[in-house]
Amino acid sequence: MAAASASSDAFDEIVMAEERFHGEGYQEGYAEGSHLGIIEGRRYGSLHGAKIGSEIGYYLGFALTWQCLLQKCRDEKNSRKIRALDSLIGMIRKFPYEDPTYDKLQEDLEKIRGKFKQVCSMLNIQSDFRIGTERSSLTF
Fold it and tell me: How many CA atoms lie within 13 A of 81 on its CB side?
């Protein structure tokens, strides 16, 4: 009986080996995938955050420069432009730079983009902001 039990255990080990190796492989693959997913997520988040930061910085520099230029000659026409620039600057300063979990991040970014386009229209400037290998530029 002991010989039959030993051969039965050996047989069970052979039959169950595929299932055991499948489970072990799954666990190893899951751990490796989780690790690589975290690395890829960080890389993507850093890249996307840098693009948003670059865009917001561009808008702020643009607005501050035009605000300084328009301060020199204040008339009714320029006061509307200055108010629009002040509004854009205020929106940018309220933007939550350090909170990536902010629910309305994309919505606020779209509002800033819209205000930027409005200001460009008021100043008769064609806005053309590009991120990537091409250079960002404004056409005068």
Answer: 22
Q: Which residues of 23-32 are buried (b: 16+ CB within 10 A; e: fewer)?
A: eeeeeeeeee
For residue 64, name the pLDDT band (cuts at 50, 70, 90).
Answer: very high
What single letter denotes the amino acid at residue 32? E
DSSP 8-state assignment for residue 95: S
Q: What is the pTM of this model?
A: 0.69
> At a CB cut-off of 8 Å and minimum separation 6, what does 111 contact?
91
Give the side-chain half-sphere CA count within 13 A for 84. Answer: 22
130: pLDDT strictly greater than 70: no
Name the residue type at position 61. G
